[in-house]
């Protein structure tokens, strides 16, 4: 017997219930955590938080459908933080093998039109330590001095200052550097940000891990950032430390420390 719609009684419709349920499945909500410089400033050096960048349990989380595009997310961020989308540059955070989270690269213009699901599939092929339960991002606020077209030679540097008299570490800013440049090239800027004298010496270190104790390795300020990659073997962090975290696109982390004055 024929049923309305042309199906024959007793015969299975060509569109199975399982396929229909998949097609009708609503978008899944995912968590997007967005860290800003304000978060770095308020977290680093407080409540025992020193050697990572940010505590993601204390940043703004957006619950959005997984079919939301990056462009749409920027509109949500614009409303929440009063930062127009054209002044936003979002960086992907990934978890490193030592347990720390680091920005690895900004999203491209083309990726802004992809859904979160598509982005996750695309990025999972390259980055092995993506958060399976959501996405963690760093929001860079663009200004007149921000480089517009980043290349593999560009790096974003986050800066921490250690005050031995107060035994305190705090965040003091970020810089863009060229991977082909030398740390010594930015020493004047680092001294200025830290409020140091123009001729004060500084030592450079790479952070290796912070558990069970903080460990770092010295870096030569006279070789390029790209050449300053060091093996996972390090020394303990010295006092009077000016700490700098370097993020070249696709690269690891480095630290810089202020040289101890003789007493």
From TrEMBL:
Protein name: Ubiquitin carboxyl-terminal hydrolase 7 ICP0-binding domain-containing protein
Sorted UniProt keywords: Hydrolase, Protease, Thiol protease, Ubl conjugation pathway
UniProt GO molecular function: cysteine-type peptidase activity; deubiquitinase activity
Keyword presence, Hydrolase: yes
Organism this protein belongs to: Aegilops tauschii subsp. strangulata
Residue intervals of the Ubiquitin carboxyl-terminal hydrolase 7 ICP0-binding domain: 88-229
Keyword Nucleus set for record: no
Gene Ontology CC: one annotated term: nucleus
InterPro entries xref list: USP7_ICP0-binding_dom (IPR024729)
Similarity section: Belongs to the peptidase C19 family.
Span list, region Disordered: 1-24
UniProt biased composition (Low complexity): 13-24
GO terms of biological process kind: proteolysis
Highest taxon above the source species: Eukaryota
